[in-house]
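Form 7-S
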Amino acid sequence: MALISAKDLTIGYSDLVLYRDLSFDINEGDYVFVIGENGTGKTTLMRTLLGLRKPLNGEVVTDGLKLSEIGYLPQQTVVQRDFPASVKEIVLSGFVGRLGFKPFYTGKQKKTALEAMKRFGVDDLASRCYRDLSGGQQQRVLLARTLCAATKVLLMDEPVAGLDPFVTEEFYGLVEKLNREGMTIIMISHDIAAAKKYASHILHIKNDPRFVEKNEYFASGEGNEFSILAENGEG
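Output:
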């Protein structure tokens, strides 16, 4: 059974329908790139998959997934980039959803946070203020935080926006390693070259959305056309 299934989703707002009848299954270990032009409803779909928005019609079904097994890395706002907390505090905050009525982090959670920071090479920044870090360092910190929040599925919204090419490739390498280890990845991106390199499936959001295997998508006329538009900055 799929980890996440969308069944006949209609996405939009009360007075605006973005698209209808979207159905797909995301299985364990999939690496899905969500692509499409600006304003087509990619972020709205992701928030729907997370249960933060209700679809206008249809449903999202999960195979017993718990919130503690799903991590979300949204687009960073200017305010978030300037957040005055230490790296360690940011990473530990990934456990907030699991604290319940307990006011303190457990020893096991602190150990897991340290391991996550080491994994992404930010353990030596633990006491540094998050807002003083570079964009690439901040994204690695957020990946470590997300690893504390998620064990099965990681959703990301334009995670490499604003990063230079070297840091972008480094970030993709970290995410690919998580995927090889079994983490299911769902990523909104305009980076078609990365989609061709890393994706297992493509979810193209448009008036008539498509969810297909990567090779099938890029072998199609539609995939080639969208690739050209994206490379020219029109997608």
